[in-house]
Amino acid sequence: MNPQENPENLPQPSSQNPIETQPLLYAGLIREITIIHQQFSTRANQALKSLNLNFSQLSLLSHLMFLRTPASITDLAEQMDLLQPAVTKMVQHLSEQGWIELQPDPQDARRKYIVLNDQGRMTFQQAQMLLFPLLKEGFAGIEHLEASSMLGQLQHVRKNLAGR
After folding, report:
1. 59-84 residue pLDDT tens
2. Taxonomically, which superkingdom (predicted)?
């Protein structure tokens, strides 16, 4: 293509990039993800009130549950893609509830590790049970095989985003 055919020197779509060749599809994905996130987090917060927990705090418990290793606030902020003050505030709440313990680093007393305790594990499991009806409602009509495939695809998206 010569400059006269593209006077504004706009980037030309690459036939290899599906986002450029199918922009409406990817715009639809963005729209659905944002709507689902808003609906789910709002309703999850309502369901979790009885545990004195919100969806963001549950996310932190989930990270701790599956890390299976102590993590610092800095580690958690990086993994959750959040600012440290937000994670610090969540850690304070979880600590006040007795769901986590703060352990000093043996080599640097200024650094603390967050460890999920048995009460925190139990609370995480209770939260999951409270959210199962919401998941059941949201995934009604989706077969087991489709849900399994969807889980794999969502894990792929998460890993892509985490690898930036």
Report:
1. 999 999 988 778 999 999 998 989 99
2. Bacteria
